[in-house]
Amino acid sequence: MDKLLEALVPLQADNPLGLPIIRSVKEAVPIRNLNIRSGVFYVIPERQMRDYARMLWEHPRLSFLHQVRYNVLAAHLHNPPSPEPGRVLFPNKAVLLIYDYDNNLAYQIEADFPVPKRVEMTPLKGQPNRFSEAEYREAVQILASDPKYGEPLRRGIAYCSPGMPPVITEAAPESLWGRLDAFPNYVPEHRMVSVLLHFRRGSGRESEIGHFLIDMTAGRVSAYGTGGSDFYPAACGGPPPGFGCTNIGGTAWQAFAWPAGSPVWSMLVRRPSGTYVRGEQDFGAGVELMDVFYNGRLVLKRGGMPVLNVFYNNNTCGPYRDWLDSETCFKCTGTDLGNGLRFANPGTRALTICDDSNDAGNFRGVGIYEDTDGELVLISECSAGWYRYITGWRFNLSGIFKPRFQYGYVDSSCVCVGRLHNGYWRLHFALDGIGGLVVEESDSPRGGRRENWQPIRIEARRLRWPNRPTRWRVRKLSTGFTAEIVPGARDGFHERFTTGEGDVWVVKARSTEIQGYIGSFANITQYVNGERTLNEDLVVWYGVHLRKRGADNFECPPLGPNIYLSG
Q1: Which is nearest to 423 in space by CA: 439, 442, 409, 404?
Q2: What is the pLDDT of residues 517-552, one digit of tens each?
Q3: Which of 5, 75, 450, 506 has the greatest CB tally within 10 Å of its CB?
Q4: Fold for domain 254-432+488-527+537-562?
């Protein structure tokens, strides 16, 4: 039952400030001594989640868990659709992904919430690409008990971090896009978890990294190294992986408005660890927003980054499909608002690995602060193997909002290799309400006499080109309310042989079109299927591409467009 508790308790909805229960984001209340308003839609105490875990454990459909070795790989609570923007309803269902090691089989569990009267269990084919902190810890324990390879861990001169990919779900494909894994020919008949072993400073082996596959089904070390070697060089000067902070609060949507006196921006915010939704966002979406209002006018129905990957020169490593729901530690000291949101103390800001090149901190969740330039900043840091991905948003009182993406890394041989990081935002616009939109594009300079906007009438993929000031705008046909998307100077460009995709997509909004992947490759173009986009409910996908040379300086330029509201 302890494993059910570990998976379910973080899903609580907490309320550390004792805020009133609200029905809409419009009812968010001022927070004492802070220039914001906030509110919660419901509270799920830790006690209630513990009771729910106990009821699941005692349910006849799950009695088999009492006799097998298992782990909960993922869990989330499902909120039913809201009848109005800016409102969140109490969850009606819990969804869990469970792996039974004794029978080498994964299950999806769907159960009524808050009382599991109905429990459905579905066996899954193949290996789930999810892993949990609990499963990873067990993999490390198996490695530590190995007579040969566990010796450095038992002596205390080494520590571990998740490998890439964190679980081996399929043999690396043999094609032009084939991934050169440390274990290229492994067919995963069993559950295989990838673990990196690092040596501590003073051990005399700081320049080495070990890479191991842990057979969770058999409970043993199954394979190791690259090219048959036990260990390989670690280089390029990245900081060591940091540990030590705890997960604060729950994962529910939180109401938020700024500034406190007369809110200009209001929205629903969800921390990265709450953005995993099985079958919808299997890899999370970073800091996710829903129902964003500007001066009382609906702007964005939903926004996040559900697609993220990295390609290496000559496929020396990867390619890998990365994820944005595994929060890691960064620095933010302030007031906890609830559900993993923390407002930094006045005059301070959240600091990520991109600010101090240090993979440590005191907080996991979403840090919020007012920048010196008068903008409100929401920011979080997530880990994917040796990478640290920073996602967030910036809001300006003049009607500008800015999705932002940065990346840093901890030491690994793969960061010595030239590579391209690709992140793709999904922006579901809802200007003055759902539907009735058109997306237009222009290659003329912003602010010129003739901007020459041309409508995109059919779903389309678009490329950005160097020295071409291409912009896009989303416009409400009935009111003229407009959101103009201006690319950032460092956002990069599509590279055919390393991304295979594009830069901007305009598609009709569909709840089933969120994942945007085939294997390790982004495939947003699969949603371009000839549907009309004039006077419709529309989504704009926006990609950024960060080219790194390999052993270059620790540089984290913020990427992303500026989006200007008018009309």
Answers
A1: 404
A2: 877 778 899 999 999 999 999 999 999 998 888 766
A3: 506
A4: Beta-galactosidase; Chain A, domain 5 (2.70.98)
